[in-house]
Amino acid sequence: ESTLYVIGTPIGNMADISLRALHILATADAIACEDTRVTKNLLNAYGLNKDLISAHQHNEREVAEKLIGRLKNRERIALVSDAGTPAVSDPGAKIVDAVRKENLNVVPVPGPSAAITALSASGFTDEHFLFIGFLPVKPLQRHAFLEKLKETPATLIIYEAPHRVQETLKSLIDVFEPSRQIVIARELTKLFEETYRCRLSDTAKWMAEDANRRKGEFVLLIEGAQTQMDKTDTEAKRILSILLDQLP
Ligand code: SAM
């Protein structure tokens, strides 16, 4: 049956690809990918060789038409991005949208995503999380955007590029309570992987200690805001402990 397979690929460590993903990549009629060089490398690592169709941010609509034509010819097409899960801060969503509008079959094939990988190691116990992806680049817009998130009782997941990470950390400190916990996850699954958890107010010191900490790819996780109820609860516990201390 004609199908568009949306496949998650490694975010660093080449071994992080599922057997199912490899099987589909090996047997698909074609692979639509973001950067053909990156996907060629991945395929080479597994001894695969396939027709590649370049599908990036700027040609998604046209490529969608081409893929729809092929799918209507009963082909099986794989869709990948350079790293991680397509359509998550990556191209792919417009293609999937167009394919769905034609009532053609779409099947997701799960693989790594930097967001979920970082979240799993955060230790944050919030029940909810909110995926933000990249923040607005302009400082004023970034501040305004963060202001709106300040009271959100969910772990916030932010993607950041190395050349902007320090500026973003500054904005976070400006807007959020400096005592909020953050996890800085860099170079996940790679050689110099690090996940560091501290208070927002301690991030500048940590970054300054080693120039390498400012390099690589980053996911920033901010612990969710305390709800009004949590705050009341914390205050009640504080008063109770003072009172208990006074008891004979
Ligand atoms: N689609 C990808 C995913 O699902 O993970 C995200 C692609 S987005 C263009 C690239 C951003 O993802 C980076 O700037 C960084 O914030 C994050 N990222 C990707 N790989 C990473 C890694 N190995 N370690 C930390 N962050 C990573």
Rounded to the nearest angstrom, the distance between the terminal CA atoms is 78 Å
Number of helices: 9
Structural class: alpha/beta
Number of strands: 10
Low-pLDDT segments, ≥5 res: none
Shape: elongated
Q: Which whole number gives the mean pLDDT?
A: 95
Bound molecule kinds, no repeats: S-adenosylmethionine
Largest sheet: 5 strands, parallel
Q: Which oligomeric state applies?
A: single chain
Please report which band the strand proportion falls in: under 5%, 5-15%, 15-25%, 25-35%, 35-45% or over 45%. Answer: 15-25%
Enzyme class: transferase
EC number: 2.1.1.198
Keywords: Cytoplasm, Methyltransferase, rRNA processing, S-adenosyl-L-methionine, Transferase
Protein name: Ribosomal RNA small subunit methyltransferase I
Key attributes of the depicted protein:
single chain; 248 residues; alpha/beta; five-stranded parallel β-sheet; five-stranded mixed β-sheet; 9 helices; 39% helix; elongated; binds S-adenosylmethionine; EC 2.1.1.198
Could you please describe the fold and organization of this structure?
- The chain is α/β, with parallel strands linked by helices and 248 residues long.
- It contains nine helices and ten strands.
- The protein has helices at 19-27, 36-45, 60-72, 93-101, 114-120, 139-149, 165-175, 203-209, 228-246, and strands at 3-7, 30-33, 52-54, 76-79, 105-109, 129-134, 155-160, 181-186, 194-199, 218-222.
- Strands 3-2-4-1-5 form a five-stranded parallel sheet, sandwiched between helices. It has a five-stranded mixed sheet with strand order 6-7-10-8-9, with helices on one face.
- A hairpin with a 7-residue loop joins strand 8 and strand 9 (194-199).
- Helix 3 (60-72) packs across helix 4 (93-101).
- The longest helix is centred in the C-terminal third of the chain and has 19 residues, at 228-246.
- The radius of gyration is 22 Å and the shape is elongated.
- S-adenosylmethionine is lined by residues 11-12, 81, 83-85, 88-90, 113-114, 159-161, 185-190, 217-219.
